[in-house]
Structure formats: C-alpha cells, structure tokens
C-alpha cells in the first residue's frame, strides 16, 4: 500500500521532504476535516483516490491514473516535439500529469481515442502484440475500396488482421471524424493490434485513399460523442 507522504509528493507535485513537512505541521486533513498527521500512514487501494485538503485546498491523491483523451487532428502523440503541438499538453492538468504516458499513438492527421496511463504494466498489457486488443476506426475516403483478400499483405510485408470492415452509414459517423469536401465513401474498420499507419496503408492497398481518420474504439472503450476535441475523461483500469 502506498504511503501518505509518497502519494502527496506525487500528486502536488513536490519533493517528498516538503510533503512530509506539510503533513507533520497539520496542513493535510481528510475531506471531513480530520487531521492526517502521519507521513507513513498506508492508504488502502479501496480508499483511492483519497480526497484531502492541503492548506484548505481540495486535492485527490491518486496512485495510478487511467484516462481517455479525445486527440484532435494537428497534435502528435509525443511528450515533446519541435515542430507540432503535442498531445501531452492536453493532459497537463490531469492527476499525476508528469507520470502519464500514451498507450500507443495516433499520428498527426488522425483524431480520436487516445489512452494515457501512469501504469507501465497496464500500458504493456494493452499494446503487446500477443494481446491483439481491437482498435476501431472510422475513415473518410476519396473513392470506393475493394473488398480485402484473405491473404492481404501490405507493402512492407505486414499482414493486417482485419476483424471487420464495412460501409459506414451517415447516422453512425462520429462527430470527431473530419470529412473533406472530396470525400465520396465512408468506412468503419476494426483491427487486431495497430501497426504504423496501418489503416491508411490498408485502404491504399484496397485502391482507395484516406482523407480523414478517427479512432472511435479501443477494446471495450468507445470515444464519447460529447467529449470535445482536446478534452479527457478519467476511466477505470478494467474499462478497456
């Protein structure tokens, strides 16, 4: 179980010595006003995130964070980049923001569902090829596509695992999918796993061209239609 001073230091964020000082001088209380004066107090998992007051200001103490971001087009999935805005800037006000890492990536021109977490094991679990967690995308296309052959091989030798590919009716298009004026066809595709630019290369191999692309599902999670571009929502570890 994590200690109170460790949790406070990570969530402020602040040096652990400063967290201990705040606790010992009585600046940290429970949300009901009860003093929390022992820096070594262990916090059970079922009490997390723990609501506290620090100098009268509310703060939720998290040990691990899992969140869903609606990544807009024009942002790269990176912590730092010299040329483009980074998706990390969109989660800088999330709990434990300095520890968050993206679960996989979406490229500059792709919008949609992007997971972030502080948990390395959870990240590895979701991205490991053997898990083959399904990813669902909606695509705006320049022209109709051919049905995929069962032995489809992309230009680099990769064999995509297409779980489902079907036309996308107008009433099922996600608001986050950008459709340029030259769009003639829409499709929804679900893949097991996610290789580099896989969706774009699949449609190129099928005789079409992706003009707009949005990831709308990851495992059991779906991108909420009312989650604005650039906004995020906290989720549970077992929601995917």
Please tell me about this protein's structure:
With 240 residues, the chain is α+β, with helices and mostly antiparallel strands. The protein has two domains: 58 residues, Roll (Structural Genomics Hypothetical 15.5 Kd Protein In mrcA-pckA Intergenic Region, Chain A), CATH 3.10.290; 169 residues, Pseudouridine synthase (2-Layer Sandwich), CATH 3.30.2350.10. The protein is 14% helix and 27% strand. The protein has four helices and twelve strands. Strands 4, 5, 6, 7, 8, 9, 10, 11 and 12 form a nine-stranded mixed beta sheet that branches. Strands 1-2-3 form a three-stranded antiparallel beta sheet.
Concise summary:
The chain has 240 residues and is an alpha+beta fold. Helix content is 14%, strand content 27%.
Assigned CATH class of the largest domain: Alpha Beta
* Low-confidence runs: none
- The value of Rg in angstroms is 22 Å
Q: Any guess at the CATH architecture of the largest domain?
A: 2-Layer Sandwich
Q: In the CATH scheme, what's the topology name of the largest domain? A: Pseudouridine synthase
- Report the biggest beta sheet as strand number plus sense, adding barrel if it closes: 9 strands, mixed
